[in-house]
Amino acid sequence: MSYTVEVDFAPMYECIASLNAFLYKQNHNAMDAGKLWVREVQDRFAPVQLQKMREVIGLAGDFNLNPYIWSCPGERTVSGFLSWFEGMTTGDLYELSGRFGQSVPANLPELRSSAAEMLRVWDDGYFGGIDPQILTGLQSEADSRREKLSGGNDMEVYEQATAGMRLYPAEQLKRVILIPQYHARPLVTSAFYDEYVFTSYTCDVLPPEEGRPAAALLRLTRALSDETRLYILRLLTGRQLSFTEIVKHVGLSKSTIHYHLIALRAAGLVIAHVSGKSTSYSLRLEALQSLPQQIGTYLES
């Protein structure tokens, strides 16, 4: 059993990623952009608009637009995608969702209309005005990552892109779509379906300010500066542990361990072994071995 990896990018993916980064409060502390970015963006919208966004996201639940963006046959800018999306018949909407094995909301046509309205508000108020270098950089990253696929190295390309997420073949899994994203850095998020997985991975497309360290170096040094995270790395040396086992060994709450694992994964310090619905973790030595070189390069630059 095996799967094939493809790399895809379109502005519509990043529009969705930026909106989710803004609305999902549970991730704000873990994001590079942080709460300051959230507050700055929030000031661009009227309270009634913000409330509407939150309502639509609540109604959508686990429903994901990535399969629709990937399937869109035309221009996948915000306006181009929404024009196609709103033009789909009700039958087409349900047929496409069924093809991916998505659990489909009973009110899908109404949800489609509300989502399209919300996305236009988001595009007018924020996304349409982002630095164009973000989208250019993401497209360049996708092109570069795609060139690394040489047939037979799909798992390796996936692990490199996600800085340590190792996705094992499964009986039904046929295709994995890698999508570079900027706004939710350093998070890596995946949507799993019967035969498909859509994974959005972190991409630092904008250079740091003059004289400042790169984001990847900052994540690595910050991850190593915490006692609990160092203890987790020691636990994972030479073995794989599940999330539950790590919680039991460390003796802290699940939410705290989840936060620490996000930091360790963002730094590329752990491998997340994903097999079906099961995930375990082990130490990823590559990041530790590259630390002296990264620090040396930064200090001498």
Question: Main attributes?
Answer:
301 residues; alpha/beta; Arc Repressor Mutant, subunit A; 2 domains; four-stranded mixed sheet; 14 helices
Give an account of the 3D structure:
With 301 residues, this protein is α/β, with parallel strands linked by helices. It folds into two domains: 4-202, no CATH class; 215-300, Winged helix-like DNA-binding domain superfamily/Winged helix DNA-binding domain (Arc Repressor Mutant, subunit A, Orthogonal Bundle). Helix content is 53%, strand content 13%. The protein has 14 helices and eight strands. Strands 1-3-5-4 form a four-stranded mixed sheet, with helices on both faces. It has a four-stranded mixed sheet with strand order 2-7-8-6. A hairpin with a 2-residue loop joins strand 7 and strand 8 (278-283). Helix 5 runs antiparallel to helix 7 (108-125) and helix 10 (215-223) crosses helix 13. 31% of the residues are buried. The model has no long low-confidence stretch (mean pLDDT 93).
Helix amount, in percent?
40-55%
Label the overall shape: globular
Rg on CA atoms, Å: 20 Å
List the domain count as a whole number.
2
Query: What is the number of beta strands?
Result: 8
The number of helices is 14
Q: From N to C, what is the helix and strand string?
A: EHHHHHHHHHEEEEHHEHHEEH
Structural class: alpha/beta
Strand order of the biggest β-sheet: 1-3-5-4
**Gap from first CA to last CA:** 46 Å
| Quaternary structure of the protein | single chain
Beta-strand content bin = 5-15%
Mean pLDDT: 93
Uncertain segments of ≥5 residues (pLDDT<50)?
Answer: none
What's the story with the biggest beta sheet? 4 strands, mixed
